[in-house]
Amino acid sequence: MIVLNTQHVSKAFGGNAVLKDVSLTLQHRDRLGLVGVNGCGKTTLLRVLCGELSPDGGTISMAKQVKIGYLAQQNKPVPGMTVYGLLNQVFDPVREMEQKLRQMEHKMAETTDETELSRLGESYTRLNSAFEDAGGYSWQSSIQGVLKGLGFPEEMQNQQTSVLSGGELTRLYLGRLLLQQPDILFLDEPTNHLDLEALRWLEDYLSDYRGSVLVVSHDRYFMDRVCTGIVELAFGVTEQYPGNYSRYLDLRAERWLTRERAYDAQQKEIARQLEVIRKLRAFNREKSIKRAESRVKMLDKIEVLDRPEEEKQIFFRFTAARRTGDDVLRVRDLSKSFDGREVFSHVTFDLFRGDRVALIGKNGIGKTTLFRCLTGEQAPDGGAVIEGANLDIGYYDQHQKGLHEEKTILDEVWDDFPRMDQTAVRGALGQFLFSGEDVFQMIGSLSGGEKGRVALTKLMLHQDNLLLLDEPTNHLDMNSREVLEEALDGFEGTIFAISHDRYFINRFASKVMELTPEGVVLYQGNYDDYLAEKEKLAAPTDAWTQAGMTRTEFRKEKRRENDDKQKRKMLQAAVRDAEQRVSDAESALAQFEAFLAGPDAYSQPGSAETNAREYQRLKDALDAAYSQWEQAVQEAEAE
Questions:
Q1: Claim to verify: residue 182 and residue 71 sit in the same structural domain
Q2: Interaxial angle between packed helices 448-462 and 422-431, expressed in degrees from 0 to 180 and rounded to the nearest 10
Q3: What are phi and psi of 468, to 5 degrees?
Q4: SS3 of residue 154 by DSSP
Q5: What is the mean pLDDT of the chain?
Q6: Strand ranges (DSSP E) for 447-510?
Q7: Do residues 58 and 129 both lie within one domain?
Q8: Predicted local confidence at residue 562, as pLDDT
């Protein structure tokens, strides 16, 4: 079923046409990835689709009663609201339904009118069904599951949203949106600020999501695992591809080759026809001139194909000015604390010439702090960092703190390399797409991606032989990430990179180092190899080995667990049976009370005595049913 259909949508700001011809189709349970270079209009498209912006042209149609959820890149805190409170708000309607159910139960217990009781029962059934569908019996566990999955420990749940960082707010609003369960999720860079554990949780969550998803992301590994289709936005026009990101790359290359061949073939045919026309006119005869005119008319009717066009891409290479020794860096028993809180300790490892090492770990574990200790920007509390011979360290800071907001792009780079002439500096900047008047923009006015390109320009020109890269793919679009990977692939020095970009780690790394509070653990291979090794270590060959038992002990324990499980089922069934007996006794008593209120109750001699005995019997039966129910509940709770 199609839940969203967009045809020929356009949107311009002033004279700048951002969206020119956008068409896409989103089916029920589709997970479409929206890709394109930075600044191509992906966020604008999401804002148009969710109704924040009005399109200038085209049509947007959605299925009836579709509920939309939109996650923006920037989110604001709610004054006076806690982390848990913001998510708890989602279930206000559920708690209202629960309150209405309790009120209806009270009314049904008091009413003696069968018609009213029947009406209340039907309403109760409908409301209870809606209550269950809305997560009425599981909303608290749903909140805790989302909080845990997105990396909010218990100690953070009572914090005010006003003290959260931008990344934490994004994660919190993502959790709120997931709990709302809209029919269509529009997600703008949801993987930003997530560590590897949270990324895997989100991938599993979205893969099982019962609605449809349109997601903007530069995380290629995420797109491979989650997406069932890709929409490419380039030059204001969209193209839709089936499959995940890797499949999209293959299909896109095939389409590009087909179009290039068709364009070349048409251009050759046009050139041939023009040459024939030229010769026919050169004959200067009436018949040849008519033939020439006929061919000209034929050419005029041809729909000329556009030359396949690519977005501009950065292009650069890393080189090292000199060669290090085999031992590049030795780290021994390094530790660091802030305000009495230990960030990491007992960090010991070696970097050798030519190593490609990815440093991973949970958010807040101290990866950036470790890099700053290696560069000397921060002093460790203990341990030693021993540099090898001829070592030149180049550091890429993900927050670009080394850039000067008050400088122009040209001055920022030229001041670091005063011996270069302006032409050479501008040439280097041109490799990172800063050309013409662009180089006179102020650093403070640049986007995160543009600042990243300035920092990469300086890193390239320094020609260091050890590159410490802190989240180098952040803010880079997919094309730029691939160019960075190619540049690192040809680098002859040593690379040590912090990254949550698993696709990037797979491309460049030959070792993965995991930072923990107790030190580091080294794994050979790339990210996929690391995952396989972790799964292997977490899964012992035998279940009884994992439980620390002999096979006989394990079987006895499993038998006892099964017996206990069966006993719990029987006790739960007993509670349900007791509840039914209470309900039957209440119904019988209510019916007899209605009979006593009627004209036939005392029409026969001795009716009053008979009725009194029957009424007492029914009351006793109800009391006994209540006692049995209370006993069943107590036994179940005790178990």
A1: yes
A2: 120
A3: -100, 110
A4: helix
A5: 89
A6: 466-470, 494-498
A7: no
A8: 64
pLDDT in tens, 276-294: 889 888 888 888 888 889 9
DSSP, collapsed to helix, strand or coil, labels residue 81 as coil
Backbone torsion region of residue 348, taken as left when φ is above 0, otherwise alpha when ψ lies between -120 and 50, otherwise beta? beta
Q: How confident is the model at residue 550 (pLDDT cuts 50, 70, 90)?
A: low
How is residue 559 annotated by DSSP? H
Query: Among residues 304, 400, 377, 379, which one has the least CA distance to residue 336?
Result: 379
The range of the structural domain enclosing residue 272 comes to 249-301
Average pLDDT on 12-38 reads 93
Domain edge (last residue) among 121, 147, 163: 163
Domain boundary among 134, 163, 192: 163
Q: What is the mean pLDDT of residues 504-515?
A: 95
Q: In a 10 Å sphere around its CB, with 0-12 CB exposed, 13-18 middle and 19+ buried, how is residue 10 labelled?
A: middle
Query: Among positive and negative, which fits the CA dihedral 627, 632, 633, 638?
Result: positive
Q: Does 297 reside within a domain?
A: yes
Residues 528 and 629 in one domain: no
Give the pairing type, strands 341-352 and 327-338.
Answer: antiparallel
Across the range 182-195, mean pLDDT stands at: 91
Distance of CA 43 to the CA centre of its chain: 15
Flag whether 307 is in a domain: no
Q: What does the block give as tokens for 497?
A: 């990179």
| Residue 4 near residue 26 (C-beta atoms within 8 A) | yes
Q: Are residues 292 and 382 in the same domain?
A: no
Q: Is residue 314 part of a domain?
A: no
Exposed (0-12), middle (13-18) or buried (19+): which is 374, by Cβ within 10 Å? buried
pLDDT at 347 over 90: yes
- Find tokens 């929206």 and name the residue: 34
How far apart are alpha carbons 435 and 493 in whole angstroms?
Answer: 29
Same domain, 349 and 206: no
Helices then strands, counting H and E runs in the chain, come out as 20, 18
Q: Are 355 and 277 members of one domain? A: no
> Considering the domain boundaries, does residue 546 fall inside one?
no
Q: Which long-range contacts (CB under 8 A, 24 or more apart) does 619-626 make?
A: 619/589, 621/585, 621/588, 621/589, 622/582, 622/585, 622/586, 622/589, 624/585, 625/578, 625/581, 625/582, 625/584, 625/585, 626/582
DSSP state of 187: E
The answer to whether 515 and 361 are in contact (CB under 8 A) is yes
Co-location of 395 and 352 in the same domain = yes
User: Beta partners for 349?
Assistant: 331
* CA-wise closest residue to 353 among 466, 464, 247, 430: 466
Lay out the sheet containing 327-338: strands in order across: 341-352, 327-338, 382-387
3-class SS at 37? coil
Choose among 592, 595, 396, 584: nearest CA to 487. Answer: 396
568: its two tokens: 């719990």
Counting residues of the chain whose pLDDT is more than 90, the rounded percentage is 56
Q: Using alpha carbons, select from 88, 92, 91 the residue that is nearest to residue 161.
A: 88
What is the pLDDT at residue 543?
52
Find residue 470's DSSP bridge partners: 498
Q: How many CA atoms lie within 13 A of 125 on its CB side?
A: 5
CATH number for the domain spanning 492: value is 3.40.50.300
Q: How many residues does the chain have?
A: 639
My answer on whether 45 and 98 are in the same domain is no
- Residue 513 tokens read as 């180092």
Rounded Cα gap, residues 400 and 404, in angstroms: 9
The number of folded domains in the chain is 5
**Quick check: 44 and 233 in contact, CB under 8 A?**
no
Q: Which two tokens stand for residue 539?
A: 């899964």
